[in-house]
Structures are given as C-alpha cells and as structure tokens.
Amino acid sequence: MPGDLPPDASGIAAREAADEPARRHTLLWLQSGGCGGCSMSLLNADSPDLFAALDLGRIDVLAHPSLCEASGEDHHALIAGILAGRQPLDILCVEGAILRGPSGTGRFHLQPGTGKPVMRLVEELAPIARHVVAIGSCTAFGGVSAAGDNVTEACGLAFDGAEPGGLLGPAFRSRSGLPPISIAGCPTHPGWIVETLVQLGHGTLGASDLDAFGRPRFYADHLVHHGCTRNEFYEYKASAKEPGQLGCLMEHMGCIGTQVHGDCNMRAWNGEGSCIRGGYPCIGCTEPRFGEREAPFLETPKRGGIPVGLPTDMPKAWFVALASLAKAATPERLRRNALAERIAVPPGGLSGKESGKPK
C-alpha cells in the first residue's frame, strides 16, 4: 500500500542520521502527465543556478529527462536497483499529473519499454524515497491536466484539486515523516525548487515549514500582491480596462493576485519579471483549483459591480467603502496613467519650500 515503509526502513533511517553531516543525497526525477514546463523553468534557475544549488545541497541526480543521457535499459536498471534496495533514493521528484485512466488502470501513461503504468511506479517508489516532491501544480493538485471533464482521471500526489486524496492518499508520509512537498505553480518558480532541494539536502525543511497543502511556506506565506509593481494603482483603484494599460488589473482584467499564495513579485523570475510585470494578470497557478475558474482568465466576475473574488481576509463591506474613498481621492496622475500604455504623467517631486530647501 502507498505509505507503507520497506521492512528495513528503521535501519535505513538510523544509518542516514548517523552520517547526515557528510552524506550526499540522491535524486530521481520522473516525468508524468504534463508539458515539461517545470523542468524548463528549473533549467533557467539563477542565484544560484541549478548546478550550484545541487552542489550546495549535496545532491546527486540519478536521472532527469532533460539532464541525463541514460535511457532505455540503463534507466530500467536504475529503477530496478532502487526497488531492490541496491540504490538508495533520497528525493523522488515527480513532474506532471498522475494519469489514473482509463477506469483506474493507469494505462493512459505507461513507462516506456515496460508496459507498466507510471502511477504504479510512483506508488512503489514513494515509500522508498526519503522525501517525495510534487513539482508543479499538476503533480500537487491535478492542475490543468485535471481541468474540465478530466477524461484522463488526472490527480495530484496527495490532493485531487483542493480535496485530500490523490494517488498516495492524505495519510501518506515518506521515510522522513513528511507528506509530499507540493512546489505548486504552472510552471513553478525555479527559485522555489532549488531552495526546497537545498533545504532537503541539509535537513532543514520540517512539517512546520509546509502549509496545509504541503507548499513550502517560504513562498506560500506570501501573496502575489506583495511586491506588485502596480500597487499604487491598486491603492487608489485606478484600474486598467484593456490589455497593455498600466493600471491595476484586479477590477476589470481578472487579476486575483490579492488572493493567491506566492512571492512571485518579491522574487522576480530570472531577477527581472513576473506575470504582472509582463502585463498579464495573476491567474492563480499555485492554487488547488487552478484551471477550474468560472470566468475567463482575463475577466473579473462581478456581482452588483463588485468583484466576486475580494482580497484575502477583507470583508465585502470594507472593500466597498475603501474602494469608494480611494476612487474619490485618486490623483489625476494615476487616473490618466492607469489607462495609458506608457507613463503619461510623471510623479511630481518636492521643490522649493516643500522640499525643505530655500527657493
């Protein structure tokens, strides 16, 4: 059963604890039902880059579809060695949703050359691994792969959308005692992956460092709204109405960054960008129900002219009152810039007596 430990698990754990300070860790990366975008994101990691992070975390990659030459019989032999206990496995990373169809057989996704469903392979490897990591929202929750009618019966490792379950079930714990670690995102931020791996390599990621969905709290305790470059427009509810305009994207353009967990705007991608900085609204890719929104991504659903999805922890009456006051106090500079594609009115600076300097 998923979650059952191998017979010698206690002995393995004791040996690992004894040599932890100097021990290197092994990582196996499996590709399941997804687009490979999280691997592509990971390869663009910087500060540190992927290889520096692996070295920092004392991690040796046994196999990764984009990084390793071994394939075919060599890959099968590696898997057989892990299952037989000849090859230690510390970190099992799974990218892509688990495809359970048709009718729970898993035969929509077979391991090449074996005819074995990948979901069965994951079920066998997960209890052996010291840590199990879900890379991306598809592996965490089912993601885009599970959206709509979900004809492939896609799910996450420990969640099916927002509901506990998935392939391994809510009670699953790896040999470390942790549930699957859900590095959610579509694709997930490369910095989130490398930081998690380094922490696992040094044994500094515990149960209290994960939120209720298994996401590392170092990024999930933030909202995408934090650090947003359009926050001044948000404060005054000076909103964009068309793509390309500079104003806040929440009121009309579908942005839900005030509700979505992630430090995307604090930890810029490749030191430079984010969805919102690129002019696109936050569509909630780190959340369990990503892909199941009732409205199109670029539309803000409203009732009585009020956005349905209000900022986290804000009562509707407060939002209405604050929005009315903010709109009444909106500086003309922000009002005009919000509907422009480039800054039309630059901010005025203090001068003369206002600046504390003589005229």
Structure description:
This protein is an alpha/beta fold and 359 residues long. 26% of the residues lie in helices and 11% in strands. The protein has 12 helices and 13 strands. A 5-stranded parallel β-sheet has the order 2-1-3-7-11. A two-stranded antiparallel sheet has the order 4-8. A hairpin with a 2-residue loop joins β12 (302-303) and β13. α3 runs parallel beside α7. The protein is elongated.
Give the strand order of the largest sheet, numbering strands 1, 2, ... along the chain: 2-1-3-7-11
Structural class: alpha/beta
Count of helices? 12
Radius of gyration: 24 Å
Tally the beta strands.
13
User: Which blocks of ≥5 consecutive residues have pLDDT under 50?
Assistant: 1-7
For the residues shown, what is the average pLDDT? 90
**H/E element order:** HEHHEHEEEEHEHEEEEHHHHEEHH
Overall helicity: 25-40%
